[in-house]
Design brief:
With about 130 residues, the protein is α+β, with helices and mostly antiparallel strands. It is about 50% helix and about 10% strand. β1, α3 and β2 form a beta-alpha-beta unit. α2 runs parallel beside α3. It starts with a helix and ends with a helix.
């Protein structure tokens, strides 16, 4: 969920919803999956983050904070799972071309930097299968 920062500035409940969607929702699902994967003794959790996690801007700082929290959680979870056969692949998405849900409500200033959602999925799958 990526919402224009101006809307978040006016509506703290909307900002809380963005955090719930982009951070706490992911954390609760990932923790629920960990038990199943540990029981199997193998598996890979693919966590989609964003370049906004490391380079938030004035135009999306609440979103960037949520993605930074998610990235920190994923790195810590990977450390916790070391040696269990369960891996965490953290994918830092740079941008998705218009039409993808990751850019709804925003202005894409440089459409060349965006990639189609299918490319993100393919690269994530390849990285997962290669152990990256």
């Amino acid at each position: 969920m990526l919402t224009p920062q101006d809307d978040l500035d006016r509506d703290p409940q909307l900002a809380a919803l963005l955090l719930q969607t982009n951070l706490t929702g992911h954390v609760s699902v990932l923790l629920a999956l960990v038990g199943h994967l540990r029981a199997r003794g193998r598996g890979t959790l693919v966590v989609l983050s964003s370049i906004a996690a490391v380079r938030p801007s004035r135009a999306n700082f609440v979103y960037g904070a949520a993605k930074a929290g998610l990235a920190a959680f994923a790195r810590s979870l990977a450390d916790q799972l070391h040696g269990t056969g369960v891996r965490v692949l953290l994918v830092g998405v740079r941008g998705v071309r218009p039409g993808g849900t990751m850019v709804q409500g925003t202005v894409v200033r440089d459409p060349v930097c965006g990639v189609p959602g299918s490319a993100v999925a393919w690269r994530s799958r390849c990285g997962s299968s290669r152990g990256r």
